[in-house]
Specification:
Structural class: mainly alpha
Length: 137
């Protein structure tokens, strides 16, 4: 299973670096306080909400497949779609996405799915232990 999980984790890690780079260039143009701080706070909050509601789906289950939760976060087709749209808007948006609000929303959306996916994958073990969920192989 590592042959599937590890390349996808590398993809999301690269996506996170791309997102942080895009956010950094947005913050270079804007002031760090309060705009930059509020943007980072909104992005982290959105990522945490993505993880919370994703894990909430598994809370009532008594048994899960060992890689079900990491696969849920790493192979989520909606997360791929959100990140693809955000990356396309960043690179090919031209003058349409040059406004501060559009660039900020692109950063928040891309950061939420990239960081949230990795955080959900890495926190799945602690979640399984906390709710006494049995892992099947």
């Amino acid at each position: 299973m590592g042959l599937i999980i590890v390349p996808v984790m590398v993809f999301w890690l690269a996506a996170l670096f791309f997102t942080c780079r895009a956010g950094f260039y947005w913050m270079v143009d804007e002031s760090l306080f309060p705009d930059g701080v509020l943007l980072v706070l909104a992005a982290v909050t959105t990522a945490l909400l993505y993880v919370f509601f994703g894990l909430l789906k598994f809370r009532t289950r008594s048994k899960v497949w060992a890689f079900e939760i990491p696969c849920f976060f790493l192979l989520n087709k909606y997360a791929f779609a959100v990140f693809s749209c955000a990356a396309a808007a960043h690179y090919f948006g031209g003058a349409f996405f040059q406004g501060d609000l559009a660039r900020a929303l692109i950063f928040v959306a891309a950061f939420a799915v990239a960081f949230g996916g990795l955080l959900g994958c890495f926190s799945s073990g602690a979640f399984i232990k906390k709710y006494n969920i049995t892992e099947t192989y």
